[in-house]
Every structure is written in structure tokens, then in C-alpha cells.
Amino acid sequence: MSELETGIDPKLLEILVCPVSKTTLVYDRQRQELVSKAAGLAYPIRDGIPIMLVDEARPLDIEE
């Protein structure tokens, strides 16, 4: 998958982990977020740059 297809560099996605749980992240293309199901947080992507700060993360809803 290319960066144009995903909106984020696939190699970057492979090496990024959640700063809280240290687990891998799932890219949510529609919301432009990196999701950590283990931590229950979604980190925003702004201008193609993941913001991996807990203070900037959105808590996931129960159904997410």
C-alpha cells in the first residue's frame, strides 16, 4: 500500500507504537487518527504528521 492510498507513510506506521501501551496502532483513514485499542486512545494526524502526545489523544467511545 502506498502513502497516497493510506495518507500516512506505511513504514512510519510500522514503527510507531502507542506511548501508553507500547502496542501497535491502527490507521483510521476516515478520521485521520492512529488508534490504540489497548489504551483506548486515538491520536490525531495533522498535515500528515501523527501527534503522539497523550494530551492530544481522544478517548475512544465504548463502541469503537
UniProtKB/TrEMBL annotation:
Q: Which organism is it from?
A: Dongia mobilis
Instruction: Name the SUPFAM superfamilies on file.
Output: Trm112p-like
Enumerate the transmembrane spans: none
Sorted alphabetically, which InterPro entries does this protein's record hold?
Trm112-like
Family listed: Belongs to the UPF0434 family.
Q: What is this protein called?
A: UPF0434 protein A8950_1364
GO cellular component assignments: cytosol
Which PANTHER family does the UniProt entry name for this protein? PROTEIN PREY, MITOCHONDRIAL, ZGC:162634
